[in-house]
Amino acid sequence: MAVAPIVLELPPLPAVEALLLLIALLLARVVWLLADGVAILRKAGSAPLETKAARARGGSVSESSRIVREARSVERTLRSSAKMFELCYLGDADMDVDKFMEACRWYGDKVLTQMGSFTLVTVREIHANMDKVKHTHQLDPQKHRSMHALLETECASDMHQPGGILLDQSAAMGLLWARRGLMFWVCLFRRHLDQAASGPATPTGSQTPSSHATVIAAYEESLAPFNGWVTRNTFMLATRAFPEWREIEATLASTPEEAKTDMSEWVHVVEPLLDRMDATLRKLDLNDTRKCL
């Protein structure tokens, strides 16, 4: 007598499938961030054309860079950025979202990209955050010109959870991370200005462990509390491509003195605006303190 085969019909396991999908997405995010880090290091390892030309002629790299910088008129992009952020103030405690989106994108494209490859990830994050803001803003551009009105609209839609648990693809999340990103530059510029006021670290003004520590200190003050292991290590990779301060200043103005003046003005304008954003996010229970990946 033949034995009938035993067939087990297992019910679907949506929870398991969902977990596997989540793991796959997290792994994809890890690969994406690590690829960014590798791209930054590769760009940092590529010598600029003017450097190669100087070496081919047997001249010094610093001398060639100095001649090139003096021969061109450097647009004071950071000063222009400060003026754009100054236009974002609205009333006594509000912010103009239209002008803020424009100022952020301009800062990334015109200021940060000129500094070097270490800003690659930052510029992309700026645009990603502004895209999140734009999704809600475009529902009613006139009303949502006000930061308060825009965020209150999202709160009324119940898209966020109590305790500051924000929906990732939301204007609140975009503004939250835009604020944190700008605060990093506020901290960095302020620390550099304080260090410069106390005297150069070396006679040549070249990068030293203390100047690199300035970057790390600014990161710890602004972004580190909200970054997970992957994001933190991606940032640390990017800092390896951080150029000398004199090179950064040369992208911002014609002289180091002008660059420092513009840094001071930018901090003076932007920091109070970020305070407004922080106060509004906290008031509406939109200050998500969870760490990203």
Automatic annotation (TrEMBL):
<keyword id="KW-1133">Transmembrane helix</keyword>
<keyword id="KW-0813">Transport</keyword>
<dbReference type="GO" id="GO:1902388">
    <property type="term" value="F:ceramide 1-phosphate transfer activity"/>
</dbReference>
<dbReference type="GO" id="GO:0016020">
    <property type="term" value="C:membrane"/>
</dbReference>
<dbReference type="Pfam" id="PF08718">
    <property type="entry name" value="GLTP"/>
</dbReference>
<dbReference type="InterPro" id="IPR036497">
    <property type="entry name" value="GLTP_sf"/>
</dbReference>
<dbReference type="GO" id="GO:0005829">
    <property type="term" value="C:cytosol"/>
</dbReference>
<feature type="transmembrane region" description="Helical">
    <location>
        <begin position="18"/>
        <end position="41"/>
    </location>
</feature>
<dbReference type="GO" id="GO:1902387">
    <property type="term" value="F:ceramide 1-phosphate binding"/>
</dbReference>
<dbReference type="InterPro" id="IPR014830">
    <property type="entry name" value="Glycolipid_transfer_prot_dom"/>
</dbReference>
<protein>
    <recommendedName>
        <fullName>Glycolipid transfer protein domain-containing protein</fullName>
    </recommendedName>
</protein>
<keyword id="KW-0472">Membrane</keyword>
<keyword id="KW-0812">Transmembrane</keyword>
<feature type="domain" description="Glycolipid transfer protein">
    <location>
        <begin position="96"/>
        <end position="247"/>
    </location>
</feature>
